[in-house]
Amino acid sequence: MLHRVTKQIRPLTQPAPQLLGIGALSLGLMLCMGQSLQAERSIEREQQQRTVAQALNPHRSTATSTGPSDAAYAITPERRALLNTIRYAEGTWKEGKDLGYRILYGGGQFQDLSRHPDRVVVKRYASAAAGAYQFLPGTWRDVSRNLDLPSFAPEHQDQAALHLVKKRGALQEVDRNGLTKTAMNSLAPEWASFPTHAGHSAYGQPVKTHAELLAFYNDNLNQLRQGA
Known about the structure:
mainly alpha, 2 domains, globular, Lysozyme, 54% helix
């Protein structure tokens, strides 16, 4: 009797696997929709990041530069203001124009940005410094090799300068506190126009004052933050 009852009940439980299959299919569809939405949001974030990076680094060329995510150092407003301040101190600011990236020591210009010009100029001193940050040939060779920079293009000069700032231990200081006297002192051995704590050049050359550099930095940073 019990055996017969069991046989009669079994047909009622057979559709259960079909219901489970439908539930699994629905769950799979929901997961796929969720993943698709996350992918769309990720693409939107990447597009926003590219837009911000382009605003902060207007002279990036799509033909020679890598994407923002491939750059060794991100260009934040604070870092861009620092780079501009170095250019101001070194005499290559030129109102922010790309002309500053083609300046030789002494004020002359060069045109080929495929490599460092490596040209000695004799003025008050003899120097082969060149570019927006007045790289010496040996310094450029080392940094460009470390960062795998293929040319002397503006965006590559920016990356090299930030690398030198980091090597001098000033990048984190600027990121956190701006252009402090501590940061300037750290950069003085790299750029003769930056003052030590005592306000002098590390090499006995003409030097900017702390107040002058800080004023330029703060003004430039405010303009960058306002999107000027």
